[in-house]
Structure formats: C-alpha cells, structure tokens
TrEMBL record:
InterPro entries the record matches: Mannan_Polymerase_Subunit, Nucleotide-diphossugar_trans
UniProt KW keywords: Golgi apparatus, Membrane, Signal-anchor, Transmembrane, Transmembrane helix
GO cellular component: mannan polymerase complex
Superkingdom: Eukaryota
Main location as per UniProt: Golgi
Region span, Disordered: 395-453
Mode of membrane association: Single-pass type II membrane protein
A GO BP annotation: protein N-linked glycosylation
Subcellular location: Golgi apparatus membrane
Membrane-crossing segments per the record: 42-61
Gene Ontology MF annotations: alpha-1,6-mannosyltransferase activity
UniProt protein name: Mannan polymerase II complex anp1 subunit
Family (UniProt): Belongs to the ANP1/MMN9/VAN1 family.
C-alpha cells in the first residue's frame, strides 16, 4: 500500500506551505520503516527549530546576559518569583494581633443569609458605620434557600457601597456565594426556635458556615468575623473592641429589646456558656449522635450563660472563659480555622454548629472568651404568642376607644335631650305655677265646696 502522505508532497492537491497538518495517517505503527524515518525527521526538525530559537534569544539578549538567563526561567529565587500565576505567602505574618488596624490586618467578614431581604438595609447601615478600615475588610455572603429578593437587594446595596464617593466606604473584596442546603424548617420565629427542629437545623447551619468559609478564606486573612444580619444595635468600634482582647475566639453578650409590656429587654443568645458538671453528666447519658441545644427546658444543663451574667454598670472589658459560643457575632483568628477547627455538622462532644465550634476550639487549646458586659442588641421579632397578645391588646384598645366614643355620643344626645327637657320643664313649671295662683285666687274668693260641705 502506498502511503498517501510523502514528506514534502501535496496531501490533497493543495500545497502544504507552513500549515501543520495532523491526520490519522501520520501515525504509523512503530515497526514500519517509513514511520521510524518520519520520527527521526521530526526530531531533526525540532532540533533545528530549538537551535534557531536559542540563537535568536542569544542575539536579542546578548547585551543583557543575566536577563536572558532569568527570562528563560533557568534561575529564579523563591522569594522573587517573576510569574504572575505564582503567589508566595508567609502565613506567620497573618497570625492576628491586638492592634490589627494599625498593621492593616485583613478581616474576612462572613454573613450567612436566608430570606434576609428585609434586614439588609439595616445591615448595610451597620457596615457603613464600622470604624475598622473598610479596605482591610473583605466581605463574604452566603445566600441559601431564599424565596425572597435577598440576592437582588444584596447586590444593589453592595454596588452602592462599593461605588461610594467617600473613599473610606468601599470594602476590599466581596464574594457572594449561592448554595441551597434544603432547609425545610420555616423561617418564622416559632419554627426556627422550636425544640424539635433544633438539631437538624443547627447541622445544616454548620454546613452553610463551612461552605462559606472554605470558599472565601484567603491566605492573607488574619481574622474572621461572623455577623448575623439581624443585629439591630452594636458599637461601631466592635471589631477593634473585640480585637483588643487578642483572643483566638471572642464573642460579645447578645440581648434583645422587648416591648414595655414584656419587660423592656431580655437575654437573647443562650449559646454562649460555660460547661457544667450537670451538662457533662447529661451528655454521658445521651446517644453518640445526640446534639444538646442550650436554652430549652428539655435539656436542663445548669450552665452559666454569658447572657445572664450581664451587669449593665459593669466593666465592658471583663472577660469570661466559655466553652460554647453563639453565632450572632464571633471574632476569631483565621489561624483557628487554618488549624482545622470548624463548625461541626455532626455531634461533636454532643454539640453542633457554633457551640460545637467553641468546644472544638477549646479542645485545640485555643482561648475562647465572652464579654458579659459588652452588649449588642438583636432585633426583636415577636413570637406567635407575642403577636397574638399584641393583637388582643390592639383589639382591646379599639374596643375601648369605640366604647368611649359611644359614651360621648350618648352624653351629647342626652345633653341635647336634657336641654330640651329642661326647657319644657321650665315651661311646665311656669304653667303649673300660674295654675296654682289662679286656683288660689279662685279659692280665696269662693271656697264654697269645702265650706258648703
Ligand atoms: C449609623 O450611623 C448613623 C449616623 O450616626 C445613624 O443614624 C445610624 O442609625 C447608624 N446605623 C446603625 C445601624 O446603627
């Protein structure tokens, strides 16, 4: 059989010129003499090309002999890489210190979002007010299982703050991560806080946090700050305030305001606590997979809660060692996560999510601290009971108002009627008096009846 392609011939009637032609016929079995010859030819050709290239580069760089060697990538030091695709990081520089804002330490601010559209304007108002240098903060949002316009409203707000003419406003890098976890629990207060839903809900939340962090944490971050969107009031200096304590993990106390008829205020986050003997004994009696959730009558743990140890006039810098942490506002050194501490989506020492995170950090010899007298305020969301109570109060108010209105109307009517009546009465009185006088006069004149009788 004649091979159809000869070295420099014409394969299909067109001159081959400089085009490089690949066709199946080129790859002949190695045993074929023709194939070996072609192979040798190819090597020779490649050799010539390489020689030409080398001669060319030698000619170009002959006046800069060192540069020519470096440019060929033959010599290069690790600390002075020339390639754009190679990055060098010294992680000993991103350990996190007490005065990070002076050293331009970068914070990754992580915000999990789910049906959070209504809270976003308030959240961005907080972002605008943060005093930690914004350019040293990277934002990472996780949007999951949302049925409202969370993503659109988030994007709008981000575009606005990143394009702000005030150079102090725009943040560093912003990541939006979208991922559903199939949270089936309804987002209303009763479902979210009901006891039965807690364990599975907390495990999904843990996964969400881990996905968000693993996608957003970069080698240049020194700190990670977790913040919920539904915080209503917090000091603008919260990042510096927490950072000054120089702890591996630190949380403020979280309370919430209440309507006056409910007492004005209340501890909110019961997930920050110190371990107790009772709880440890309880944990020993539970299944391996069980998850203790704090703040429910079902598990009486008798743990000292950060929330209840608040003294409104106490030193806001007072520290308390804790084991479980709540997730509303956590500042942690990035090295904690780098070392492998995470939010367990399984039962870790009978805990999951942020409480498990606290326990795991403790287990890894990290410092985990809460500030009982440094308080931030969670938004007050009325429970179904509260809403019913408020509706009853509203109905009562409306009923009372209606009653008063009716009473007023009646009084007015009575007054009018009484006014008429009194006029009539005066006239009647007058008539009676006149009659009496007439009768008296008549009687004085005659008196016949009595006398005659
Ligand atoms: C941010 O600061 C402004 C001006 O001081 C204030 O009106 C606003 O309420 C603050 N936002 C929050 C969420 O605290």
């Amino acid at each position: 059989m004649m091979p159809r392609h000869q070295g420099n011939g014409y394969s299909n009637g067109y001159p081959r010129g400089k085009t490089f032609d690949i066709s199946p016929h080129r790859f002949q079995p190695r045993s074929s003499v023709h194939g070996n010859r072609k192979h040798r030819k190819l090597i020779v050709r490649l050799g010539i090309v390489a020689l030409l290239l080398f001669a060319f580069s030698f000619w170009v760089f002959s006046s800069h002999p060192i540069l020519s060697v470096v440019s060929l990538g033959l010599v290069s030091s690790t600390t002075d890489l020339e390639f754009e695709t190679v990055r060098y990081y010294d992680l000993s520089n991103v350990q996190g210190t007490a005065r990070g804002w002076e050293r331009e330490e970068r914070i990754l601010l992580c915000v999990p979002l789910r049906d959070a559209e209504s809270h976003l304007p308030m959240f961005f108002s907080h972002l605008r007010n943060l005093t930690y240098p914004h350019h040293s903060i990277d934002l990472a949002f996780l949007v999951s299982d949302s049925k409202d316009r969370t993503l659109e409203v988030l994007t709008d707000n981000l575009e606005r703050i990143q394009a702000d003419p005030d150079p102090e406003q725009p943040y560093g890098e912003v990541s939006i991560i979208e991922k559903d976890f199939g949270q089936k629990v309804n987002q209303d207060v009763e479902s979210r806080h009901g006891f039965a839903a807690q364990a599975s809900r907390r495990k999904l939340m843990a996964q969400a946090r881990n996905w968000l962090l693993s996608a957003a944490l970069r080698p240049y971050h020194s700190w990670v700050y977790w913040r919920d969107v539904d915080v209503e009031t917090a000091p603008f200096t919260i990042l510096e305030d927490l950072m000054r304590h120089n702890k591996d993990v630190i949380v403020p106390n979280v309370w919430r305001p209440l309507p006056d008829w409910l007492g004005g205020e209340q501890p909110y986050d019961l997930n920050s606590w110190q371990e107790s003997e009772t709880a440890l004994a309880l944990a020993d009696t539970l299944d391996e997979d069980a998850v203790i959730v704090e703040g429910y009558a079902e598990y009486a743990t008798w743990r000292p809660h950060l929330a209840y140890l608040r003294d409104p006039y106490g030193d806001p810098d007072m520290e308390m060692e804790i084991d479980g942490v709540g997730g509303v506002s956590i500042l942690a050194k990035a090295k904690v996560f780098r070392a492998g501490v995470h939010f367990p989506a399984f039962s870790f020492q009978k805990h999951a999510e942020t409480e498990g995170f606290g326990k795991m950090a403790k287990q890894m010899q990290c410092s985990v601290v809460g500030l009982p007298n440094y308080v931030i305020w969670h938004l007050y969301e009325p429970s179904v009971d509260d809403i019913r109570h408020m509706e009853e109060m509203e109905q009562e108010r409306v009923a009372r108002e209606k009653e008063e209105q009716e009473k007023k109307l009646k009084e007015q009517k009575m007054k009018e009627e009484f006014g008429d009546a009194s006029g009539q009465w005066e006239m009647d009185k007058q008539k009676i008096r006149e009659k009496q006088e007439q009768q008296q006069q008549a009687g004085n004149g005659e008196k016949p009846a009595v006398g005659a009788a």
